[in-house]
Structure formats: structure tokens, C-alpha cells
Amino acid sequence: MQLSADEINSGQLSLDTLAEALTLIKVNGYVVFENALPDDLIEELFTEHQKIFDTYLENPDPTFGKNHYRTYMPFRAPFNDERVIANSMVVPILNDLLGKDFVCHYLASNTCIPGSELQPAHSDVYPLFPDTDIKPPPYHMVVNIPLVDITVENGPIEFWAGGTHLNTFPMDRIQALAPIMQSQYATMPAGSLFIRDGRMWHRGTQNNGNAPRPNLALVYTRPWVDVGPRRIGIPQDIYDNLSDRARSIFRLEDIGGELDEL
Asked: What is the chain's pLDDT, residue by residue, as a tens digit (262 residues)?
């Protein structure tokens, strides 16, 4: 969706845009707001991310597909800018989909570098009731923020819209069905917001460009969703200086903990 100048400048969606975005997510599993964040913020995020990523590549973790890397971002400027972690255009969507007590458990980047290979098609979350046809409402949402323009050449996310977020198939079944189903590529300008149901099928693709393709990722859930033991380290002084809304969103993280610095 192309936001109006007033929406971008104010950081507030019109009621019509909000309703349309919610419909798109509920039916198709996703919505994209192009050019939603200002260039100066994206430039700062890119610069700081590159420093962290360069250090990370000196001793990287095992990857989910060749040359695809996950890097946890420290909860400090610019990554804890409220336009990133509690964006005023995203929060009303999450309030509707997840309830006003939603939380964030994940602040990281997914970066593919030249030579990356196709990942297996997958969902980011397992179905709650895999042995039934019950289709529960959203409980796990992902917000991706590209830090560079994403094109078909530099490793866009490939995704399967139109209902895959409502299926209850196991992962091996997803991988068998995806090749015979129509997919799309998430190409978009830097600073866009790609808001997607975590159940929607997707995968990382080949980066055939000449530079890394960094994509910030935040995961928001209903507070009862079990995301494992890892929590974002947030020093007390940083937490205390957040807005009321952001403190609520991150209330279940490691408050008083150390930053996730490499």
C-alpha cells in the first residue's frame, strides 16, 4: 500500500487505510506500507547494523540455508527507536489482531549475502491445533523493515499469500506443496513496513547482487505464546525511558538485563 503524505508525516493511518490493511492481513496474510520510515532513520539503522553484522561474520552461527544469517540487535539507539519497536502505524494493527496486551519477543535482522541459496519453504510458527481444521485468529505477527531497497536480484523474501496463514499443515507438507503453488516476492523500498502473519509460508531466496541485504525483524505475539527461553536484554535505565506503550510491549523481556552486544 502506498501511504498518503499526511499519513507518513503524522505517523497515523487514516481509518480507511487501517481497515483496508486489516482486511489484507486477515485474508492474504500480509500488508506492505511502502516508504513508511524516514530516510535519515534508515541510514542510521543501516550504518549501525553494518558494524554489528561485520563483527558477527567473524564468527557466525550455523545458518538456515547457505549465507542466510540471523543477528540479534542490541536494545539501544537506533534499534530501540519507537518508530521501529512501537511504530504508531503498526500498533493499531497489532491491537486489533493480537489484543492490546500484545508483546514483542524478538528484535533481530535477517541478512542474506551474495551467494545465498534458497531456504526451504516454512512457517515461523507451528499451528496451535495441528490435528484439527480449527483456524484460530492471529497470535504471532512479524514486522520486517528493509534497510536497503529489496529487488528481485538481492534476495527478496518469497511468500505464499492467500490463505497459507490459516493452514494446519506440518513443515514437511509445506515444503512439498509450495513448489506447485503460486508465490510472490517481497520487493520494496528501504524503510517500508512488511507486516505479516507469522504462519504465512515464506522463505529466503538467492542474493544475486553484490552486497548484503539486511532486513530487520520484530516478532509480536499474544502474551501467552511460548517463544522459548531467550529474552531481549533491556537495561533498566533504557526501559524506564521508553513510552508507556513501549514498556508494555517489552514488559516480559529481560528488564535490567545486559544488552545483546557482540
From this structure: 999 999 999 999 999 999 999 999 999 999 999 999 999 999 999 999 999 999 999 999 888 889 999 999 999 999 999 999 999 999 999 999 999 999 999 999 999 999 999 999 999 998 888 888 888 999 999 999 999 999 999 999 999 998 999 988 888 899 999 999 999 999 999 999 999 999 999 999 999 999 999 999 999 999 999 888 899 999 999 999 999 999 999 999 999 999 988 7
Query: What is the grid cell recorded at 9?
Result: 508525516
**Considering the domain boundaries, does residue 7 fall inside one?**
no
Burial of 182: CB neighbours in 10 Å, binned 0-12, 13-18, 19+: exposed
Indicate yes or no: pTM above 0.90: yes
Enclosing domain of residue 164 = 17-235+246-253
The CATH number covering residue 219 comes to 2.60.120.620
Look at residue 241 and tell me if it is in a domain: no
Task: Say if 12 falls within a structural domain.
Answer: no
**Overall number of domains in the chain:** 1
Nearest to 221 by CA among 188, 192, 197: 197
